[in-house]
Design goal:
mainly beta, five-stranded antiparallel sheet, globular
Amino acid sequence: MNRTTLSLIAAATALVAVTGFAALNSPDGADSTPGQAAEQRPVDRSALLCPAPSASELAATAYTSFTPKAKGGDGKGAARLERAVKELKDSEEGSADADDADDKKKDAADSKDAKPVLDITSAGKPVTAKASGADSPALIGAADGALAPGWTVQQTTEMPAGSGRGLLGLNCGAPDTDFWFPAASTAEERADFVHLSNPDATAAVVDIELFGPEGALKSEVGEDITVPPHSSVPVLLSTLTDEPVADVTAHVTARTGRIGAAVQVSDAKAGADWLPASADPSGSVVLPGIPKDATSVRLVAFAPGDEDADLKISLAGPTGSITPAGHESLHVKSGMTASVDLADVTKGEAGSLVLTPTDGEAPVVAALRVTRGKGAKQDVAFIPATVAVGERATSADNRAKGSTLSLTAPRGNAKVRVTSSDGSAAGTSVTKTYTVRGGTTLDVTPEVPSGLKGAYALTVETLSGTVHAARVLELPDGAVPMFTVQTLPYDRGMVSVPEAEQDLSVLQK
């Protein structure tokens, strides 16, 4: 028998062996039919970052953590929020390497500060914690197993007086590398801090760019900002430039690592709140949740691409969509921030702003600055452009009074199921279905869980159509109409897992 014959026999034997191994170890239930759709499976791990809530001794903050119940029943999992390492105080500490930062983290772990702020072991019921004063730290959280899909945490801070007075609400965000903040400011009456939080064991390096009505603002200190491991660093935007500008767009990017980012806004006259990042640049955007008694609404938009954007402005109200008189459209030049004062555009009826392209589809980011009240008795909130609810979205912190759910169907009709969860201390969940007509905004007072004690969560599930949502929380302080607005984007609780196929052709190469 010659060598060629022996080689062929050996190759055939190897092929049979590999084929048998692949057949025995293929995934359970796998189908080798080409073109199968990817399977949707729950995520098995989530991460969230909560910035330090306030630098005031008067501040009182409530944290509310919630994971919706899984459809398949109860599973095992855990979720916890822990204190970030305290911000380094001077440049020498700020230049510490990752090893030094890790040592400091270990030291913190040995102290009483290592005790988790929130430790969650079951889904379907909110878990709450409280903090007060200026020493409340930034938090870093992780959830796994059955508590990871849809895990949501909100921090709500009440500031009754002083600089930063108002109601400040924020959904703690997932780490990422790119954030857009239209409606930020470097004006003298504003103190806008962007909080940069690093969840990882290595330092992150961050750049911050500012864009005004004339384009990029000159800055020599907005690059190479180091965020140490497991830490949070606040940066005052007005220190990055010599130009005081009323409306700017802040672009935050992580050059290395990943971060969480949010802008804490304090206005000397109007109040305070958090400005979350806008949804990713898109040709059409929706900004839901403008209260019916808004006394001032200001739209700020930015076009990050190479082309100008021409946008039609529509207000989706209870009975249909209208074009605000005198503000039919907005032209946004490439690389420049555009703004328009829409005054009391809602005219006593709650609504949502919808921006659609009039020519082409240049991507934009956008946000609204919304004011309630007048003079010394007013408060401000921010509504960023947001993606649709999708399969499911959740608002974690709701009270027996003061919560309003805003549902917008920018195109055709839509139907949603809204579940008010069990209460954090007591109360039984309740579910109700709503239909939203195309081109309208439906404002509803959610069903309160029976026997409610404490806070409850609102979970919105899309049954048909496309819906954008926001939750308005009102906690008035005397004559001051303090409020905050949080959008409800898709919670990304599911992930696509492609079906694997056996491909024996690789053995022939």
